[in-house]
Amino acid sequence: MFDNTFEKTFRRLSTPFFSMGDVFESPDGGSVQTYGPYYYGYVKTIGEDGVPHVTEWGNAKPGGMLTDSSVRDPLVDVSTNEKDGTIKLVSEMPGIAKSDIKLNVTDNMVLISAEHGDRKYKKKVPLPSKVDENSAKAKYTNGVLELTLSVAEEKPKGKIVAIE
User: Fold this and answer.
1) What whole-number distance in Å separates Cα of residue 120 and Cα of residue 98?
2) Are strands 52-58 and 40-46 parallel, antiparallel or unpaired?
3) Averaged pLDDT in 10-residue chunks for the chain of 164 residues
4) Whole-number Å distance between alpha carbons of 137 and 29
5) Residues 6+ apart with CB under 8 A from 84
């Protein structure tokens, strides 16, 4: 089952990407001047439930237009620790100083942006569950950003009605 799921996911992600080479050729057979870098990739992880998860990253995603190559899409890994009730984001952003990083945390999204000289990174990361923005703790060492957030407690919706 795992191999079959991975094979289907690989084909879905790679087929449009390989046809993207047509973008770099002109109709008369000459080459078109391009500016880069253009990159694309995906990360396959297996969740705690045993189901494989595939995450895309890069600035040249298949089937879409090429984006601004001056802004890089950092590789971000999101993991949930249900025992501790935390969500941890790990992002690779080499060549950036700690003071250049800006993090904006909402209850269900994290916006990571950084700029140092010609290196620019930007990514919106959806979170698997709502978090407490005030619990955010970030650490940046050797090009790796680690952000830890506490999962917000679900408050019951509705109103308690007294019985007469």
Assistant:
1) 13
2) antiparallel
3) 74 66 52 58 76 74 60 87 92 91 92 90 90 92 94 81 86
4) 53
5) none
